[in-house]
């Protein structure tokens, strides 16, 4: 049962939903699961609304709710894993992407699906939501240095996933330009 | 002689993200200048960041399920408030008369017990027919927030403030007033126009997101105030700007 919430809270909550949905999608890599997470996140936010002291913190607060819901979901499905239908994700993302960018979008979706939750989270916060390092540190309750090292590792993993290492050509071939 | 510290991997990313301390920017830039392989790596990381943002940007612009909005409004809905309102001819009488004269039709008079859709008609008229305004606040007069808020509050008859949407790229350029209503006009750098029509609520909470003639419309009303935001933008953009505007409207 949800608490009575203020109109200001309702307005801000609705305004945050598009970004929250984007965050959930990038985090879990599954559009139907992302919508389930947001739906559950809304319900949980409505119940816990009285505990949020500053409306300015609504964005991080909502993301933490969705993140925790996702982690819970992963734990529940540990034995079989959370299904990531990469083709479906590519399709969902492609719908809202310009045709010229669809190949890159598919590559990104595949690469993100190969990363850990922790890596996806920090990549999304820095790269999609464009939070500052300080904001990320506050949101994840980790030191600034940890944000930087975690982000560097995540970006290296993403880079590796986007561009598998090419096989080294024999020296003789390289020299002949073949 | 002071030797420079070598560039750390984390600093390359801080450079990309604009988070590098000023005393290290020159060091990293020099390292990139001197090492094409390093420069190529940084360029690839920057491109990945851009690709990531582009890939998920569209998700935030998709229409939201109505069930989510209904769930939130259901939690926000207060018990119905019955307000005893005296019959009153609205400012739209004059507005509508002017419009009707323009098309050679009959005179329309809006009463306080008008249909639910009339706030949209008023908002459309205010957006299209700027000459119908009773008064206008514009230019330097808008700079003083307390003054413009008082102007708005006096026009509508409610304690309101003019939402500052500059952080979303929308600059307030004028406030038009009508009888018990006002229209705020915002401009974007790309030439787009967002209008926000505000008046007292009819008492029935509602939220509608629609599109009419290429213009996205968000009607948002609680028990006290009704607002209609209109602009040529995506549903996602409208949700963002309307949410911010509505939340900032009430004191």
Summarize the structure in short.
Chain A is mainly α and 178 residues long.
Please explain how this structure is put together.
The complex is a heterodimer of chains A (178) and B (251). Chain A is mainly α. Chain A has nine helices and no strands. In chain A, helix 1 (7-28) packs antiparallel against helix 2 and helix 1 (7-28) crosses helix 6 (117-128). In chain A, 41% of the residues are buried. The model of chain A is unreliable at 172-178 (pLDDT under 50). In chain B, helix 2 (22-34) packs across helix 3 (36-57). Chain B is 41% helix and 20% strand. Chain B is an alpha+beta fold and 251 residues long. Classes of the chains: A mainly alpha (178), B alpha+beta (251). Chains A and B meet through helix 1, helix 2, helix 4, helix 5 and helix 6 of A and helix 1, helix 3, helix 4 and helix 8 of B.
Question: Which features does this protein show?
Answer:
heterodimer; A: 178 residues; mainly alpha; disordered C terminus; B: 251 residues; alpha+beta; seven-stranded antiparallel beta sheet; 8 helices; 7 strands; 41% helix; 20% strand; elongated
């Amino acid at each position: 049962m949800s608490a009575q919430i203020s109109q200001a809270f309702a307005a801000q909550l609705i305004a945050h939903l598009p970004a929250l949905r984007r965050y959930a999608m990038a985090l879990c890599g599954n559009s139907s699961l992302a919508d389930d997470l947001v739906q559950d996140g809304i319900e949980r936010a409505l119940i816990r609304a009285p505990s949020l002291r500053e409306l300015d913190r609504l964005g991080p607060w909502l993301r933490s709710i969705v993140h925790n819901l996702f982690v819970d979901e992963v734990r529940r499905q540990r034995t079989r894993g959370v299904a990531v239908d990469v083709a479906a994700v590519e399709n969902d993302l492609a719908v809202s992407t310009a045709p010229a960018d669809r190949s890159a979008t598919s590559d990104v979706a595949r690469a993100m699906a190969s990363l850990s939750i922790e890596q996806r989270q920090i990549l999304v916060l820095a790269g999609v939501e464009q939070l500052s390092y300080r904001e990320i540190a506050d949101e994840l309750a980790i030191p600034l240095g940890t944000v930087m090292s975690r982000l560097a590792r995540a970006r290296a993993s993403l880079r590796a996933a986007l561009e598998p290492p090419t096989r080294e050509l024999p020296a003789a071939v390289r020299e002949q330009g073949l | 002689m002071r030797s420079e510290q070598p560039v750390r991997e984390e600093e390359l990313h801080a450079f990309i993200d604009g988070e590098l301390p000023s005393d290290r920017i020159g060091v990293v830039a020099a390292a990139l200048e001197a090492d094409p392989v390093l420069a190529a790596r940084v360029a690839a990381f920057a491109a990945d960041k851009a690709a990531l943002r582009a890939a998920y940007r569209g998700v935030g612009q998709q229409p939201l399920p109505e069930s989510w909005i209904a769930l939130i409004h259901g939690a926000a809905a207060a018990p119905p408030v019955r307000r005893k309102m005296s019959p009153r001819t609205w400012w739209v009488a004059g507005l509508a008369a002017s419009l009707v004269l323009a098309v050679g039709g009959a005179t329309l008079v809006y009463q306080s017990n008008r249909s639910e859709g009339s706030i949209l008609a008023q908002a459309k008229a205010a957006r299209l027919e700027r000459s119908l305004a009773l008064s206008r606040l514009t230019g330097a007069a808008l700079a003083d927030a307390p003054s413009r808020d008082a102007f708005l509050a006096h026009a509508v008859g409610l304690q309101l403030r003019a939402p500052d949407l500059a952080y979303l790229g929308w600059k307030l350029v004028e406030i038009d007033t009508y009888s018990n209503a006002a229209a705020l006009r915002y401009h974007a750098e790309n030439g787009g126009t967002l209008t926000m029509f505000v008046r007292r609520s009819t008492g029935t909470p509602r939220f509608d997101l629609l599109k009419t003639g290429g213009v996205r419309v968000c009607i948002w009303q609680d028990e006290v105030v009704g607002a209609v935001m209109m602009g040529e933008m995506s549903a996602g953009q409208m949700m963002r700007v309307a949410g911010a505007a509505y939340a900032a409207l009430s004191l």
